[in-house]
Amino acid sequence: MAQPPTTPIRTIAIVGATGQLGKHITSALLKNPTFTITALTRGTSTSSFPSGVKPFSVDYSTPSTLTAALTGIDALIITLAVSAPPDTQSKLIHAAASAGVPWILPNEYGNDTNDAASDETGMGPPKRAARKLIEDLGVSSWIGVASGFWYEYSLSGPGLFGIDIAKRSVLLFDDGRQKVSVSTWAQVGRAVARLLALPVHAQAGDGPAKEETATLNEYRNRMVYVQSFSVSQRDMLDSLNRVLKLEDADWTITGIGAKQRFDEARGMLKEGNRMGFAYMLYTRYFFPGEDAALFEKRGRLENERLGLSGEDLDEATRKAVEMAEEGYFAKLSYAR
Predict the structure, then answer these.
(1) Residue range(s) defining the domain that contains residue 94
(2) pLDDT confidence of residue 219
(3) Do 8 and 203 meet the contact criterion of CB atoms below 8 Å apart?
């Protein structure tokens, strides 16, 4: 088993620095002048990076290039697109071990991948396998960031939360009042930056505040739960009405049991419809009474200790409306 690192994090490598989530993490990291940031990029990539980020070209078929990129790095942040080859993360984890990287933030940034719901959606096993690989290699420690669904992305995606903004339609799961934890992309970025800025150990002489002072070591090899807010479908619809200056009568509102929709979505997936997976994934966390994605109810929320305040629901909803009106989701390759 890896020994707990002792020095604070200063050098950070990020995979997916210009991606949907990665660019928000990168932006938050850049606000901390103590960090030196390297972005791993494929040789064929045409991405441009913000000032302060050093690109390092790698070839995933040549492990030595990954090891070279990660040599001298304190923390590796992995954010991967759903289209990434399945072995991408394991290659990065092996390279991090070869380079002696003390900390890895694996590709999590969603719901809790330790519970039964994650097994039923198929998300849990590969996530746990990646974390186990880190531990088995015995060099790095990991911290998994669980942030719930990405709010503005999910609300703008037609039907993911059962709401289609463009069509003014709502499909309520059961009574529509099951809450889930959600985060904006910016909040996830802040959470990662705050986490990596923590001291490794509590400082001597901290006194009564010692227990309230979060440290990296206490989060070592475990999940960290954060959110922007917790919402139900009803909360989202109310927010949309405020932002769009509408009323319920302006929407076509229907209902279905969450478990029924989950089964129907699974059927869609078996027939080759990729959106079936998305509907299955989202609906599973709205099963009534389970609170499967409600972090605050489960006593797991770390917002206060990381200095993360809540966000304004209507502002985040306004962003989702803008994305929906721009057809953001339809432009994604996996949504077609």
Answers:
(1) 11-147+186-225
(2) 96
(3) no
Q: Coil, strand or helix: which one is 2?
A: coil
Q: Are residues 175 and 274 in the same domain?
A: yes
| Paired tokens of 119 | 């097994």
Structure tokens that stand for 136 in this block: 């088995």
| 176, 207: one domain | no
Lookup: tokens for 168: 């003014």
What residue type is 335 in one-letter code? A
pLDDT in tens, 99-117: 999 999 999 999 999 999 9
| pLDDT tens digit sequence for 142-172 | 999 999 999 999 999 999 999 999 999 999 9
177 and 211 belong to one structural domain: no
Tell how far CA 186 is from the center of its chain.
Answer: 11
Number of structural domains the chain divides into: 2
- The residues that bridge with 273 in the sheet, in sequence order, are none
Beta bridge partners of 181: 230
Q: What's the confidence (pLDDT) of residue 304?
A: 95
**Torsion 73-74-80-84 (CA) sign:** positive
Percent share of the chain, pLDDT over 70: 94
In a domain, 236, yes or no: yes
- Strand order of the β-sheet with 169-173 is 163-164, 169-173, 252-256
166 and 212 assigned to the same domain: no
DSSP character string of 20-65: TTHHHHHHHHHT-TT-EEEEEEETT------TTEEEEEE-TT-HHH
Two structure tokens written together for 65: 């290039």
